[in-house]
Structure formats: C-alpha cells, structure tokens
Design a protein that fits this description.
single chain; mainly alpha; 2 domains; four-stranded mixed β-sheet; 23 helices; 58% helix
Length: 489
C-alpha cells in the first residue's frame, strides 16, 4: 500500500469533481448523437436475456461477457447509456482516489485531465463496452495500489473480467506479469512472483473464456480476432496501415491535452536524476505499464479508432497527473490548468446531435412507425438494430451486428452461416420472398461501405430490385425509408 502524502486530501474533496463529471455525462446521455454500435450491444443483451448464447446463436464481434452485462439495460437506449455512464464515473472516481494518495496537486492534475474531458465522457455515455472495461481495469489498478500480502492477487480478478468484456484489456494482465518479472527482487512492485502470476492469470482466463471456447474455437477466434484483423478477407494491409496512421493522428487531435502532459512526463523522465516523479512508485508504474500494453494491443486490429484509447485514459491521467504534480510550474500552473479545462470541454463538440442531426428522437419516431406496421412477433429487417429495439420487435437473424453484419464476398457460405452474417445475394433472396413484414432501408448506405464496394454493381442492384418488387414505401424519416410488405397482410 502506498504511503499517503502529508497533504493527502479527504475523500470528500472528490465529490465536487465527480459531480461535475456526472453532470457533463448526463448531458451527453441526453444530447449525444446516436452511435452506430449502440444498437448491437443492446440487441446482444436482449438476445442473451431470451436465453441465447453469443457466437453460437448470434454474431457478437467482441468479448463474450458484454451481452450479459448489457442485458441489464433490457433493450433501453437510455438505460444502456446510463449503465455505461455509471461505470465510467466509477473509473474516474477510482483514478482520482488513487491520485489523492499522491497529494492534492496530483489529484487536481488528474481531475483536470478526466473531469472536463467531454470527449472521454462521450464514450463513457454511450452503450459500448469501453466504460465497463475501463472501470474494471481501473479497479484492478486501484486494488493493486491498495492491497499487499496474500490479498494482492485479488487485483487480477477485475482485470481478467475486463478482458472478457473488451479483449484489449488483456494487456493489463500482461502488464502486471511483465512488471512482476522485471521487478522480481521488489515484492512491492507486483502482486506476486511472476511464475505464480502466470498460473493464476491462466486459470482465470480459462475459467472465464473456457465455456465459450466449447461452443466452437473457430467461432471464438473469428468473433474476437479474425474479424478485427481483417485476416478473413477484409481490408488490405495498405488500408489497415492507413487507418492506423489516421487513428493516431485523430488520437492526438482529440487528446492534445494528454499529448501535452505526456510531453511533460518525458521531460520529467529526463530530469529524473535531479529528483521529481519517482518511477519506484508501484501504483503509478503499474498504470503506465498498463497504458502501454493496452495501447500496443489497439494496434493489432485492422483499423484504429481514437475512442479505443478511452479505455486507458483513467490510468494515463493518474500517471501524468502525478508526473506534472512533481514539476514546479510556478505561475504557469493556472494557465496550464485553464487550457486543460477549456480544451477538455470542447472535446465532444462534434458528438452532439445538434451538430450531426442524428439524434435519439429519430430512433424513437421510426420505432413507433414500425410498431404500427407489424405485430409483436414480426422480425424487422434493417442494418440499424436500434429501430427494432425502439419498436420492441425482433430483429431479422443475421443482422445483429448492424452495418458490419454484411460479410466479405470471399467468405464461403458455410462460414457465413456459422458466423451468423449475410451477403447481398442472401439479402436479395430474403426480400424477394417477402419474409420480413417491415424493412427499414437506405439503399445500402447503412451497411459497411467498404464491404458494399467489394460487391458487383449487379449484386447491389439485385437487392434494390427485390425490395421494389416485394415492398411498398410507407414513409421516409430522417433519411431512412420504411417499407411494408405488399399484398394481403
């Protein structure tokens, strides 16, 4: 356990910071634009609540415990967002408490990086696995910082749970094992000897992932690795490299305040011999190692999006906040703090539906139209699961993963069926048969455009012909066309 600094503030001083973060987060729950992935997380939760199993019964291109967690939202758009926000606020609270033990200055600098960071709060206030995994990751690091002796290994449990919600959190486990190996002469730096840690980590991962491996190792590997890396016939290596470079650039754009503090950290490391931030602090060292390990895993998928890194922003804020608190900024401190707060508050400016025009009210309105056109058991065909959820109607099988349900043309039909995906010829057949009572469509604009472009013009036209032959346009709303099946109902 870290020895508190003489100026360690009371936990009550955390309350105003968390209250501000909660207020900003609730504003983003209400006014944040709809993110395309939210529907398939909620859809996965609903299917699990109905007794289905991810990978075996429906596609879920993420770690397996996510649907079980999101089943708590019961398909509610707002409920899913509030659930995630509660986890995000928990991660921020743990980070602030960890920094608090390093003194008031460390806590304040950490808070300035997290609390006004609306871009981070945006991703903690949407239905996605980022906030729950961030909470578990930060909880593990907080326990690592607080526990010693026989209880120290307990920090591995939330870390392992985080990996079954978001796979890249596995980097946190690797970070603790690496630190145990590098610091094996100093027991305060790790929760146990490296050999024992490897065994415990292996047993935890086997217990959590093993049941899903029994559903078919190929399903587990495809949903968690092959789909994301593009090795199943996805993006070209050049396309993947371009995406990663763009992702790093966008990351710097969204987190220039973090980049600034990281620069301060590097400067402080150079000045280490003259005193300052001590790399001997096991808690801060674990935070820094975890950030590096998880970030390295984020480079593995075929595409890199800046919001992936919100998973490790709480431990990054702790490490950087402690580093900056050890530097004498003098009169510059207030100016730097003001810059951090203002840039943080502007972070989510492009994520508001007042800017994008794509707001939750549109989902609700389309859901009401769907409910009027079909019965409670009629499945809706759409690449936007949010619409079926808003109508409280089932989603047509094979469309659970929203836009990315469209398979690469090279994926063989048996594999496509086993992994619960669809291709354009199958969609055309479904539409020609008039199976779904209602279709919500936008001329394939809702599907993954990289995949759509790989199909021939004839295949794309075939879908539109089948739609026009079997369905009539009822209305268009917010850019989406709502079709009803022709003929007697």
């Amino acid at each position: 356990m870290v020895t508190p600094e003489p100026d360690t503030p009371s936990r009550l001083e955390l309350v105003p910071w968390i209250a501000v973060a909660a207020a900003l987060g609730l504003g983003l729950v209400r006014f944040g634009n709809v993110f395309p992935d939210e529907g398939w997380y909620l859809q996965g939760g609903r299917l699990v609540a109905q007794g289905l199993t991810p990978y075996r019964d429906f596609a879920f291109f993420q770690a397996p415990l996510g649907p079980y967690l999101f089943s708590l939202a019961n398909g509610s758009f707002v409920g899913g967002r509030l659930l995630c926000l509660s986890f995000g606020l928990g991660a921020i609270a743990l980070a602030l408490d960890m920094a608090r033990h390093r003194g008031r200055a460390a806590m304040v600098w950490t808070a300035l990086m997290l609390v006004p960071a609306t871009y981070t709060l945006r991703w903690y206030a949407v239905t996605r696995n980022i906030a729950p995994a961030a909470f578990l990751l930060m909880l593990a690091l907080w326990l690592h910082d607080r526990l010693r002796g026989r209880l120290a290994w307990l920090c591995l449990l939330p870390m392992a749970l985080a990996s079954t919600i978001r796979l890249s959190a596995t980097g946190g486990l690797a970070a603790l094992v690496i630190r145990a190996w590098l610091k094996k002469t100093d027991r305060s730096q790790a929760p146990g000897p490296p050999g024992r840690l490897v065994v415990v980590v292996g047993l935890l991962l086997l217990a959590l992932w093993g049941p899903f491996a029994t559903l078919g190792p190929d399903r587990l590997v495809f949903n968690n690795l092959l789909y994301h890396t593009g090795l199943h016939g996805g993006a070209s290596p050049l396309d993947q490299l371009r995406s990663k470079v763009q992702g790093i650039v966008r990351l710097a754009d969204h987190h220039h305040l973090a980049a600034f503090l990281l620069l301060v950290l590097v400067v402080q490391a150079v000045r280490h011999r003259s005193g300052g931030w001590s790399t001997g602090d096991p808690g801060v060292g674990a935070c820094a190692t975890t950030v590096l390990a998880v970030t390295a895993l984020h480079l593995v998928p075929g595409r890199l999006h800046p919001e992936y890194h919100e998973l490790v922003l709480p431990p990054l804020a702790v490490a950087l906040g402690v580093a900056v608190s050890r530097i004498e900024l003098g009169r510059l401190s207030r100016a730097v703090a003001l810059v951090l707060a203002l840039t943080g508050l502007l972070g989510a400016r492009t994520q508001l539906y007042a800017v994008t025009g794509w707001n939750p009210a549109h989902v609700s309105q389309i859901g009401q139209t769907i409910a009027r056109l079909c019965g409670p058991t009629d499945a809706v065909l759409t690449f936007v699961p949010d619409f079926a959820l808003a109508a409280d109607r089932p989603l047509w099988p094979g469309f659970e993963m929203a836009s990315v349900s469209l398979a690469h043309p090279s994926l063989p039909a048996p594999s496509r069926r086993r992994f619960h995906m669809v291709d354009l010829s199958e969609i055309a057949t479904i539409l020609a048969s008039g199976g779904p009572r209602v279709v919500v469509w936008r001329d394939l604009a809702d599907a993954d455009q990289r995949r759509v472009a790989l199909y021939t013009g004839a295949e794309r036209a075939g879908v539109q012909r089948a739609l026009g032959a079997s369905y009539r346009l009822v209305e268009s709303r917010a850019g989406w066309d709502i079709y009803s099946r022709k003929g007697p109902e």
